Amino acid sequence: MTGNAVETAGLGRRYGKNWALRDCTLQLPAGRIAALVGPNGAGKSTLLHLMVGLLQPSAGTVTVFGDSPAGSLAHVGFVAQDTPLYRDFSPTELIELGRRLNRSFDVALAKERLAHLGIAMDRAVGKMSGGQRAQVALTLAFAKRPRLLLLDEPVASLDPLARREFLQSLMGGVADEGTTVLLSSHLLGDLERVCDYLIVLNHSQVQVVGGVDELIADHRVLIGPADIEAHGLTVVQERRTNRQATLLVRGYDPNVTPIDPQWTVHDVNLEDLVLAYLANEGAFSGPVGVRP
């Protein structure tokens, strides 16, 4: 699958004088499973709502598979943060509703998936556990057979076992259908296991965007004596004590930029990278989508 599932240019949404999202420019390649990360109030839910057409931009543009959100709605599945379902409806009734509202709705897929999960088809979803409701909501979204699936904090209220089962179920469905996924969550450990693309929002703006492997490969942690510097590298985050300096840097290539041999070089993970950029809002330039 080629091309971009989502493109935004200067996208913004304002409420009065306050911007919930501002100057958001990014591309989400089709076929990726993308993590959308940021602190509360960063604009994550606003961005998802703009993509699905529940909000209209105050500035800029957003396209989904080259069309407006309204024009592409038939190809988009959305599970909102509170997994809104008609609480008095059973899964059987929700599946019938989905069939009536969506031409491409796959009734057999929905029934088979819920049966595999052991979810009672005749029980009101309002009487189910949070994990079961999340699985019903995800099943309804999958059964629409979307090309793009947007998930807003779908596992926030689940216990660790239910989160693992939900994410395993998500990965299985995505692998079968080739769906592009944008998953908003604070749970960086979960995201690292399932996502191959990263978008970081902070203070209503995009701070980092790019492939996870490329971003991690371009960053290293340097640890050394407190009084030495890392010349020729972009320092993302710096922590110094009386005895030791710890730097997260990007652009490190030992063949291009030799460093003081007193530094020891360590790999980073997704959590290291995200937390460093959220802590430091300075200007960073360079490849792999880091915001200049």
From TrEMBL:
CDD domains: ABC_DR_subfamily_A. GO terms for molecular function: ATP binding; ATP hydrolysis activity. The keyword Zinc-finger does not apply. InterPro entries: AAA+_ATPase, ABC_transporter-like_ATP-bd, ABC_Transporter_VariousFunc, P-loop_NTPase. The keyword ATP-binding applies. Keywords: ATP-binding, Nucleotide-binding, Transport. SUPFAM superfamilies: P-loop containing nucleoside triphosphate hydrolases (SSF52540). PROSITE patterns: ABC_TRANSPORTER_2. Residues 6-228 form the ABC transporter domain. It holds the Pfam family ABC_tran. It comes from the Bacteria. PANTHER family: ABC TRANSPORTER ATP-BINDING PROTEIN ALBC-RELATED (PTHR42939). This is ABC transporter ATP-binding protein.
